[in-house]
Amino acid sequence: MTIEFKNPDQIINMGIPCISDLYINGNEIENKIIIDNYLEDSEFYYFIKYFEISKKQKDNFFSVIRINKQNFKTMISKEKFERIFIIEMKKNILYYADGFHKKLPIINKLINFY
After folding, report:
1. Under a CB-based contact definition with an 8 Å cutoff, are residues 65 and 34 in contact?
2. What is the rounded CA–CA span in Å between residue 89 and residue 96?
């Protein structure tokens, strides 16, 4: 499968993270996806989606989205994050860094999708 990020845009004036539209095999799947921070296993892709609620940065958040590789059905985590860099997913336990790069301490959290 081919994963592409199109129409990149900065969300914070620090250069990172950047969001874009996510395409898989040429089909648009989601928008406002963090570029180049995703995981995959045999069944799913896991990406970070940015939710812009208002122009105030404190109102906005990130969530993990899970995409089924067979039918491309998307599910969103109930959990919200101020900053996140996903490291690993094992049996719905998310291992992540509380920032936008993986050189920070790793935190783990049970993730629920709906």
Report:
1. no
2. 9
Compute the C-alpha angle 68/72/75, nearest 5°: 60
Closest CA to 26 of 48, 4, 7, 45: 4
pLDDT digits (tens, 9 = 90+) for 29-63: 999 999 989 999 999 999 999 998 877 667 799 99
Q: Determine the Cα–Cα distance for residues 19 and 40; give it in Å rounded to an integer.
A: 19
HSE-up of residue 85 (Cα within 13 Å, Cβ side): 14
Per-residue three-class SS string for the chain: CCEEEEEEEECCCCCCCEEEEEEECCEEEEEEEECCCCEECCCEEEEEEEECCCCCHHHCEEEEEEEECCCCCEEEECCCECCCEEEEEECCEEEEECCCCCCCCEEEEECCEC
pTM summary value: 0.90
Cα–Cα distance, 33 to 64 (Å, whole number): 10
